[in-house]
Amino acid sequence: MSLSLLTAQYFQQLDPHLLTFPEDNYLLHPTTQETIYNTLFSESHAANDHPLPPPAYRTRVLKRLITKLESLLSNPEEDEINESLLEEYSTLLTLPKPSSIEQAQQLTYITYTAPPEDDPHHSSSQSKERRTILTSESRSAIITAGTTGHRTWEAALHLATYLSTAAGRAHITGKKVLELGAGTGLVSMFCARYLEPEVVVATDRELGLMRQIGDCAGRNGLAGDGDGIYDIDLVPLLVQTVKSLFEKYAVKEFLISATLRNERTFGAFLNACGAFVPSRFSNTEESALKVERVPFESPAEEVQTGFFHSTVIPIRTYKITA
């Protein structure tokens, strides 16, 4: 198996037990081990392309890798573990270990890799190198500084996976794109860098998140809503915002992905979209929004090749039009 899958998983900082190592004979080969060191752990090699994960994460990955390699040693005269890997592991073990709270609050750069393109018309030399987006986030945190936007949630990865397909690209190419509640900015930056929109505007109510997106936009070579439904109290505000975008700004369609962790909350959103509600500006009723489910399912976790995310809880994408 190619090292490209392991590299994509590693720089997205998947839990070490989820990483896909190459097959045993290939992994044990000296050249493979040297490539792994240079690509994933060497400051002089890896950081030129992607910022390295935090030391605590690298330590956990190296521990699993070295344990795996030790189990494969059968010929003392021929089999060996790469010296650079062992030295790096020893060095990392000497570093002060941050507390679990400090690790949860620490912002780190994450590199997401999109699945390979399925449209031959857009398989450029750039895409053959894999499409990557850098974000700044706290992977372990649920709420940091009063917001859930410091990590990329499964629904955003699901939506990005859909947009990486030919069918998804059609929603973006040549269009003006506005993202509500951009959070880490993954979806906006992916659209802007790879899907050829006319313009992309990322929005979020948290100024700190917008500053992080601005920093990452520059790092992604860019000039500088996924899962927005997690609280039933926010549903009326979101629906009214969507209606205003259609009525006042000639928005053509609205895409939303949401994790169905609470079917009551998402059901309330769908019902609100389809309901006739009194207009604030006249005695008439506003027309209902049309809600259509997008026929897309994320690949099962064991066959994902990019934008890796859990599919244990169902994630749905809907297209809303006026």
From TrEMBL:
SUPFAM superfamilies: S-adenosyl-L-methionine-dependent methyltransferases. InterPro entries: Methyltransf_16, SAM-dependent_MTases_sf. GO terms for cellular component: cytoplasm. GO terms for molecular function: S-adenosylmethionine-dependent methyltransferase activity. Residues 113-133 are annotated as: Disordered. Pfam families: Methyltransf_16 (PF10294). It comes from the Eukaryota. Residues 118-132 have a biased composition (Basic and acidic residues). This is Uncharacterized protein. It comes from Aspergillus niger.
